[in-house]
């Protein structure tokens, strides 16, 4: 469905944004219903924008929508929203297993696992499905936007938007230019993030890890080496960094929150790209990931957690 002209969109039943509304989006597709995908769906839908949430199977889609509903219930219990607001958000999220429905969106955000080949394959499919003017976004934290875009015929319309978990609460998004990303694409992505999502944008010129991932991974890895070498306990390390530098959370607790498998993937990517030993994954991290101790989402990482994700006292690794 390549090279669809704007004046032909109405015949296809697709939304066309007028010149006066350029950059103000009414429908966005999110590919992937994991933690980041659901956070994006929640954040976007609560601004009044319709969301098409695409998952691989009916079972995984149902699971994702159930988790989204539970997350919104948690916000209600915290007095963060009302029941009517929850209903409005869910009404704006349309779940599907048909990737072709992404063609109805004005912007598509990919939020699948951090695997370069999987992302390249997905973007090639989206490039064939979506109208030519559709912007394709990857939420990668460490992979090359340019390399992901190379499999498409719209390198100028591919861009990175690195959101942070939990998406509804973290005000930052790194908007990452690939080698071919146009100024028009960057400006539209920036406008969407700032004006519609209320985020603060930091412009990034493609480099492995951008700013945040590159800096935080070095800190997390060094904290893990301190633990492995017996410098202090996990609790001691986190307490030292929290109180010494006024951080809201310690590095090991943060790694558990992100997911140790995700942290390991970021480290492997940065080590491969930059060859710097400070990004070589700590053996203790590899050991925990191999054991299936992935942090809060699995109930155990550097600390142990209950079913609600609350850290159990005295639960050092």
> What's the main sheet like?
8 strands, mixed
Strand order of the largest sheet: 3-2-1-4-5-6-7-8
Chain-averaged pLDDT = 91
Q: Based on Cα principal axes, name the global outline.
A: globular
The termini sit apart by 52 Å
| Gyration radius over CA | 20 Å
CATH topology of the largest domain: Rossmann fold
* Number of distinct beta strands: 8
Helical segment count: 11
Task: Determine the structural class based on helices, strands and strand pairing.
Answer: alpha/beta
Order of helices and strands: EHEHHEEHEHEEHEHHHHH
**Amount of beta strand:** 5-15%
The CATH class designation of the largest domain is Alpha Beta
The CATH homologous superfamily of the largest domain = NAD(P)-binding Rossmann-like Domain
Uncertain spans: 1-20
Helix content estimate: 40-55%
């Amino acid at each position: 469905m390549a090279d669809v002209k704007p004046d032909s969109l109405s015949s296809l039943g697709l939304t066309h944004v007028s010149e006066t509304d350029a950059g103000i989006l009414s429908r966005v597709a999110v590919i992937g219903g994991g933690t980041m995908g659901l956070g994006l769906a929640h954040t976007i839908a609560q601004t009044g924008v319709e969301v098409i949430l695409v998952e691989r199977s009916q079972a995984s889609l149902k699971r994702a929508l159930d988790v989204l509903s539970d997350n919104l219930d948690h916000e209600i219990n915290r007095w963060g929203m009302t029941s009517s607001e929850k209903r409005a958000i869910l009404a704006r999220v349309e779940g599907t297993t048909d990737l072709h429905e992404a063609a109805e969106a004005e912007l598509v955000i990919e939020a699948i696992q951090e695997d370069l080949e999987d992302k390249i394959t997905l973007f090639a499919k989206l490039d064939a499905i979506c109208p030519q003017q559709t912007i394709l976004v990857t939420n990668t934290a460490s992979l090359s936007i340019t390399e992901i875009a190379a499999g498409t015929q719209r390198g100028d319309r591919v861009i990175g938007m690195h959101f942070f978990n939990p998406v509804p609460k973290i005000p930052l998004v790194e908007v990452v230019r690939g080698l071919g990303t146009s100024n028009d694409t960057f400006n539209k992505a920036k406008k969407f993030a700032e004006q519609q999502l209320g985020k603060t944008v930091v412009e990034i010129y493609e480099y492995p890890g951008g700013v945040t991932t590159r800096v935080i991974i070095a800190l997390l890895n060094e904290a893990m080496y301190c633990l492995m070498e017996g410098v202090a306990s996990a609790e001691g390390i986190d307490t030292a960094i929290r109180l010494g530098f006024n951080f809201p959370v310690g590095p090991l607790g943060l790694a558990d929150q992100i997911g140790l498998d995700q942290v390991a993937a970021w480290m492997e990517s940065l080590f491969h790209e930059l060859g710097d030993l400070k990004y070589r994954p700590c053996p203790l991290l590899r050991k925990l990931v191999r054991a299936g101790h992935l942090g809060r989402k699995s109930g155990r990482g550097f600390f142990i957690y209950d079913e609600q994700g609350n850290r159990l006292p005295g639960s050092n690794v």
